[in-house]
Amino acid sequence: MASVNYDDVTKRYDGVAAVKDFSLSIEDGEFIVLVGPSGCGKSTALRMLAGLEEISAGRISIGDRVVNNVAPASRDVAMVFQSYALYPHMTVYDNLAFGLRNTGVPKNAIDQRVRRAAEILQMQELLKRKPKQLSGGQRQRVALGRAIVREPSAFLMDEPLSNLDAKLRVETRAEILKLQERLGTTTIYVTHDQVEAMTMGDRIVVMRDGVLQQVGTPEELYTSPQNLFVAGFIGSPSMNLVPGAVVDGAGEERIVGFRPEHLRIAHDGGGDDALRFDARVEVVEYLGDEQLVHLTRQDTPLLAKLPVEEQLERGREVTFAVAREKVYLFDSETEERVDSVGA
Predict the structure, then answer these.
(1) Pairing between strand 274-286 and 154-158?
(2) What is the tally of helices (H) and strands (E) in the chain?
(3) Which of 39, 59, 16, 4 is nearest to 207 (CA)?
């Protein structure tokens, strides 16, 4: 296990920076998630750490060793890709053992590591099967097992759950978390799915256009987004972000943000210190324990997540309220967060 450090790392392709001045310190044993939309540079940052992409500028360290010019095989990291990349003609046992055999690990040690990985991932009964006999989730566990047997300083995972269906993604996500907690290995995990990021990371790194936007715990990113992009990207459903003129009392020169789950129906005309506005109900999505209510105000779409006890009809005008401490203001030019309405 080891710490990982990026120091002002830049990657250029034909003069265009895919990652720009990227700096990040990852503690030994930490689970870090790099998240952002396609093309934001998160996979490039991971591949530079693995040695699969050359660094244009800056420095990457694993532990006390600068690895800029170290070959991928000598960096003591193990990578799990989106594709399982299993050898179809080999059994699960041989797929797990293949890399160790190539590095000259003694046969007894290989057997011990393979069986230990199989036990950790609860796939002892799969060792004699070939990949075509496995489900997608089982294949992904084999890909994880191939990383585990390496006993690396860090696990690097690039969209490892993208090929799984929704139910299996949730199950495998839990398996990866239990695995990382059991092994305590430093893990850097790349995903475009912010729900995955929020549920898995000790800390989350949000990227956009090759630039690090914010680093923090899931709670910090949810409650204290530093800019408009993070505010809109983190949270499901996304935060409502509207011009200040749409919401009375919020300041016309600002972008106003408030989360769907913080909206409530205002049954009285006054009382508590809240931001209030009328909106028209357009669509109601019933989800069993809650309802997503699509609204419009001044031709601007809004979304509310509400309990199901109160039925709302399409076309109805409703007064909504949101506590002022739950309202965020952003500068419309810089997109940086400024004081909240409640400040």
Answers:
(1) unpaired
(2) 8, 19
(3) 39
Which residue type sits at 156? Answer: L
Residue of 129, 15, 4 lying closest to 66 (CA atoms) = 4
Q: Which two tokens stand for residue 238?
A: 């996304």
> Does the structure show a pLDDT above 80 at 171?
yes
* The model scores a pTM over 0.70: yes
Alpha carbons 118 and 147: distance in angstroms, whole number: 12
Asked if 303 and 290 touch (Cβ cutoff 8 Å), the reply is no
Partners of 22 in the β-ladder: 9
Tell me: the pLDDT tens digits for 201-229?
Answer: 999 999 999 999 999 999 999 999 999 99
Higher pLDDT residue, 121 or 277?
A: 277
Count of C-beta atoms within a 10 Å radius of residue 115: 15
Residue 167 has pLDDT above 80, yes or no: yes
284 C-beta neighbours (distance < 10 Å), count: 18
Q: Which helix (H) or strand (E) holds 245?
A: none
Count how many residues are written for the chain. Answer: 343
290: left (phi over 0), alpha (psi -120 to 50) or beta: beta
Q: Is the pLDDT at 343 greater than 50, yes or no?
A: no
Residues 321 and 270: their CA atoms lie apart, in Å, by 10
**pLDDT above 80: residue 150:** yes
Kindly report the three-state secondary structure assignment for every residue of 136-193. Answer: HHHHHHHHHHHHHCCCCCEEEEECCCCCCCHHHHHHHHHHHHHHHHHHCCEEEEEECC
Which sign does the torsion angle of CA 125, 159, 87, 185 carry? negative
Q: What is d(CA 295, CA 265) in angstroms, rounded to the nearest whole number? A: 12
